[in-house]
Amino acid sequence: METRPLGDTGHHSSVMTFGAIALNWLEQEGANQLVEHVLDYGVNHFDVAPTYGDAELKLGPKLRQHREEIFLGCKTQERTYEGAWRKLDRSLNRLGVDKIDLYQLHGLEYDEELDAITGDDGALAAFREAKEQGLIDHIGLTSHGDPDLILDALDRIDDLETVMFPLNPVVAGKDGDEYDYEAVLARAEAEDVGTLGIKAFAGGSWPPTDELPEADRPFANWYRPVTAPDEVRERFDFAAAQGLTSVVSAGDPKLVTMILEAAADFTGMDETAQRSLIERVRHEDSPVPEQLHH
To answer: How far apart are CA 73 and CA 71, in angstroms?
Structure first.
């Protein structure tokens, strides 16, 4: 599988990142098999979080066995110094490792959160200390919120090495600054910051829960994913062709193999094919930016 430099971290990430939330829906044996399956395809970048149910615990055994092969991204939604330290310790314990390669400020959505994170008693101070102590190697940020807020974060956090944000043809076809994740991609590339794309496979929002209860959804994703192999491949090709370092796989384990196949076969996507895909889907409902759907 193709690899690309993850900004100036020195790591080359596989063009697909394994979204380890998929492990939460599996028993331990199935989780072990899925991790081996993903590694067999050449994926070397994994992403997990404490909010993903039992995913950290389920990832632990195979992560420890293959630690040298896996660039491990984890994250925290804590915004304070104390909270971030507490969550980092907890994640290290649950994963059973002594270091996280990329630790990310998770789910940035509001200006006041950025103020809190970067304040004297903010999470960023904990991240920097942890980096000095060798508990984490790199600092990143994730958001499905307003692109302008991510740009502000890049302005204000000079040691930010990666950003994770939505990129798909539905969003690319929408007008308005609140959909302009391409501006984030351009800034990140200019500053040699690694870029991780999420929601590449979002097909839209689920029907309201009174029409389709959460328990009855056929896929575990919080958005309705595309599920046909050719659509999955087209969506992967589009996201990877935008210049992202890596495209994060969808959260349902049933979709992982299709995405692996698409990533392994990726050779590019020409401008005409990209434009025609955007035209076809631009009027569909977009589940991002997330704050528009609260």
So the answer is: 7
